[in-house]
């Protein structure tokens, strides 16, 4: 309650400074819009205009790419953590791909997957893959060895050890990867849209830049921020629900 | 309930039959841990037997290979030489008939007390209804009925260790291995747990190998005490404890208890000096 009040107060102050700075310093609209103009652009865009269409497009590519990228990272990461042979087979390619800036691949992806939704999904998936992959492998490997030995002493099969011990032990780290991937997935979607698209919030920003319509650009940026914040909040709340025991719980159990 | 009655009647009429086949035997067991610079000989030519329903304590200074011996008995390690047998068969891996309690509770933080207790039965694919009933019975035995749905993070160290003991007995093992199970507890809880363990064992009547640093604990709980020496780990003394059961805290001021404790303390002091 108090933190909400503080946030509201600081937002009010910042918006007020922004508003009056533009009036006092005579900042032209093509450099920086006034808060009122941004609100106006948001209203126009979402009520009468085409903002929804763009928002849905970006949301779709982000979500589908996020699920594909994180899902495959989870599977490949788990296989790699469990079977050394898979590690020897796959790791060199993953390291090579990881050391490459994924954004540099965007034009190639557009050539291969076209100008539509598919290329955006691939770009998002690619960019989400690595943090998720690294965290999955690290999480599964950092499982408390005493728990694994306990499971062995009680005749636990390899599959049960994986499901009952390693996956829950890695859950916290995996969720950290999912959290990082939320922000990265939006970056991936916007980059792909910048390069070639006729839809999406990224397209909206680059289209508005040609007419120096900064209020629309700001409106699109705020929409993106809202997507990012919502995504992070969803991941965080699922994280809290599923990984309810936390680090302190296992530490407390040991004392 | 039937098991309880049976165990109690066994206790009231102790029939010391001549034991023909020990449950566990260790014959000339040596364990060498390989290392980059020189290897560690944790155990050398260790001989020991354990009878059915016997409570055996292993006393010894730190680093004399007590945990190593326990892990060999659990089938978690294979000896470098010598042989360990369980009911006459060489131990080749973790067995279905053995339970183990570690120094730390080693519970799953994401599972409730009852779920933790059920883990061994689930691993072994035992009947679910039976194992659930058994888990309830064991939690009652360790005095945690009311806490069965708590997570380890919500319980004290002593409660967690009791869940660990209940888990050790879940699949009705003939052998329970305990590696300094009370070492992480405070002195008061420790004494209480010691009395509790005797009570639990008298109901369950399995064989126990109990590793401890505490001489009174060993004397209080055991039928037999094996004293180990360090560098290399070996058996120094094998002592029978002929103090009638059930033993109570009052037993601890009994003259037999006091003199045995004193003898062991002297032996121990010498061992530590030499080691
Ligand atoms: N996994 C291991 N690798 C190498 N050396 C070990 C290992 N485990 C134990 N040791 C060594 O073996 C000896 C006996 O250890 P341990 O069985 O843990 O003794 P205790 O339980 O009596 O304190 C010690 O010197 C210890 O350092
Ligand atoms: Mg030890």
TrEMBL record, chain B:
Residues 24-255 form the ABC transporter domain. GO terms for molecular function: ATP binding; ATP hydrolysis activity. The keyword Kinase does not apply. InterPro entries: AAA+_ATPase, ABC_transporter-like_ATP-bd, ABC_transporter-like_CS, ABC_transporter_ATP-bind, P-loop_NTPase. PANTHER family: ALIPHATIC SULFONATES IMPORT ATP-BINDING PROTEIN SSUB, TAURINE IMPORT ATP-BINDING PROTEIN-RELATED. Belongs to the ABC transporter superfamily. This is ABC transporter ATP-binding protein. The lineage of its organism: Bacteria, Pseudomonadati, Pseudomonadota, Alphaproteobacteria, Hyphomicrobiales.
